[in-house]
């Protein structure tokens, strides 16, 4: 194996790696996936109940799609108890 070549994960770390290096999505996509509007998303972030955003530039942020999807899946399990 060449030390500078990245190989895909081959173990249980696959899920963790997906959360670290997955696709980034912008606010309109987050709103569509969650059914929440901007104010509710940011309020949930402040409360620590929604995944944090990633700063792309001074005026742009995005979210890791895998984290948002995991949050959505968790909401369906709990019935949205802790929004």
Order of helices and strands: HEHHEEH
Main beta sheet: 3 strands, antiparallel
Spatially, the strands of the biggest sheet line up as 1-3-2
Low-pLDDT segments: 5-15
Write the layout of secondary structure elements.
Blueprint: H1 13-21, E1 24-25, H2 27-34, H3 38-47, E2 54-57, E3 60-64, H4 65-78
Antiparallel strand pairs: 1-3, 2-3
Explain this structure to me?
With 83 residues, the protein is α+β, with helices and mostly antiparallel strands. Helices cover 49% and strands 13% of the residues. It has a three-stranded antiparallel β-sheet. A hairpin with a 2-residue loop joins β2 and β3 (60-64). The N and C termini lie far apart (45 Å).
Brief rundown of the structure:
The chain is 49% helix and 13% strand. It has helices at residues 13-21, 27-34, 38-47, 65-78, and strands spanning 24-25, 54-57, 60-64.
